[in-house]
Prior knowledge:
Strands 1-2-3-9-4-7 form a 6-stranded antiparallel beta sheet, with no helix packed on it. The protein has a 3-stranded antiparallel beta sheet with strand order 6-5-8, with no helix packed on it. A hairpin with a 2-residue loop joins strand 5 and strand 6 (160-164). It is built from 6 helices and 9 strands; from the N terminus they run H-H-H-H-H-E-E-E-E-E-E-E-E-E-H. The protein is elongated. By secondary structure, it is α+β, with helices and mostly antiparallel strands.
Amino acid sequence: MSSSETERPSGADSPAEPAAAALPAVAPQLRALRRQASLTLEAAARAAGLSPAHLSRLETGQRQPSLPMLLALARVYGTTVSELLGETVAERDSVIHAADMEPTAAGGWTYWQAGAPGRGMQALRVHVPHGSQGDIVRVHPGEEWLHVLRGRLRLRLGDTTHRLAAGDSAHFDSLTPHRIAAEDHDGVELLFVHTLLQSPTAALCLGPTPGGMS
């Protein structure tokens, strides 16, 4: 989940966001990954929601991609934003033991990292207390999948409200405005997977956190 981040990949040739210092290396990497995926410029651009002309400028270094564009292209090429940026990612553990999951509080929620950092998606176990952040509308690039482990969840997607019990799941596009709230006074516990850029989890997933993370 996220605080409002409404930029979408688009074919418009508007100025791109400033990004990390590693971005100059992204142009040849974009072209190499597209060719590796056996995609024409037109097919890759269409799948990423860009114009062929704009993608061509990205591949030749005439324009820098915004972060949502990087995310869209990473999905099309079946890779991660880190690989698009040419970053070398250190070896990561494939198994996360419960004893190694440290709880972190942010915005009234408590979450545990249930997946390795630096991946193209993040997995979390989240406890949402009753009355916490239920009025925050989140919109951001990516996909989300959640599974209710305990309690009851109220999930609003666009104009529709869904009520989920333990064992129920939801899978949706994160550009759909969404709200999450616990129905029970004891709160609700979720298993949560999302595809997001490599940014602080609390800022993107848990919404605004005045004063930072505790």
